[in-house]
């Protein structure tokens, strides 16, 4: 019986750590992370508008940077379990509803520590199932993309990451630290809930080169734990990476306080 079981075709659950992709035209890649669907501080309308924008933008792709759901449980830190505005089931359904709209444009989904909250108690990795449902690559911790345009190739390494940094400059240091190990054209880190992009030069074999660094922002208003701990407020938003044969750069899509101030976010 046991032998039979091991002869069955078990689907591959290994995360994707390297992705090669070819494009015929210049592309844009939105780095979407730390949405925290269901948190009392979740910016709902901004989230919905962002996915609509991705859906309607030509040659735009996106990478899920993790922490899609708030997913507070009775065992997680703080009183988030009673404060969250959607149940974990509602959070999962909402995440899937939004991601499904743009699944053909998704280059992969990283797993965040909030999405992780069912792993320790019951061994279920939420993002693995989400990626399997949507038929997109599951990236888990770190993934390197080789992005080939007609006449130029770029390498991009992305991660949800881990860090307890709380100030804008110490948060930025996290992605500089990443640059000590990962020798790519573009590096992007989530988890810090700050939107920052930077062109940072370095030497490679005596030649000065430029690479891009990004912290991928959030879809959260200031409040909750960050406010209680007197951390500085951070503007929500997300970076978009623009790649062409001649140029790479980031644009920052910041949450617009004036546009959304009347909304019941
Ligand atoms: Fe987060
Ligand atoms: Fe996180």
What does this structure look like?
With 265 residues, the protein is an alpha/beta fold. It has a single domain, classed as Metallo-dependent phosphatases (Purple Acid Phosphatase, chain A, domain 2), CATH 3.60.21.10. Helices cover 27% and strands 29% of the residues. The strands form two sheets. Strands 1-6-7-8-10-9 form a six-stranded mixed β-sheet, covered by helices on one side. Strand 9 (195-204) and strand 10 form a beta hairpin. It is globular, with a radius of gyration of 19 Å. The model has no long low-confidence stretch (mean pLDDT 92). The structure holds fe (ii) ion (FE2) (2 copies). The site of one fe (ii) ion has 6 residues, from loops. One fe (ii) ion is lined by residues 34, 36, 67, 114, 191, 193.
Rounded average pLDDT: 92
Query: Can you list the strand order of the major beta sheet?
Result: 1-6-7-8-10-9
> What is the domain total for the residues?
1
| Portion of residues within helices | 25-40%
Radius of gyration from CA coordinates: 19 Å
Shape: globular
| Total count of strands | 12
Order of helices and strands: HEEHEHHEHHEEEHEEEHEEH
Instruction: Flag low-confidence runs.
Output: none
User: In CATH terms, what is the architecture?
Assistant: 4-Layer Sandwich
Write down the CATH class.
Alpha Beta
Strand content: 25-35%
CATH homologous group name: Metallo-dependent phosphatases
**What ions, cofactors and ligands are bound?**
fe (ii) ion
State the separation between the terminal residues, measured CA to CA: 55 Å
Q: Main beta sheet: strand number and arrangement?
A: 6 strands, mixed
CATH fold descriptor: Purple Acid Phosphatase, chain A, domain 2
Protein structure class: alpha/beta
Helix run count: 9
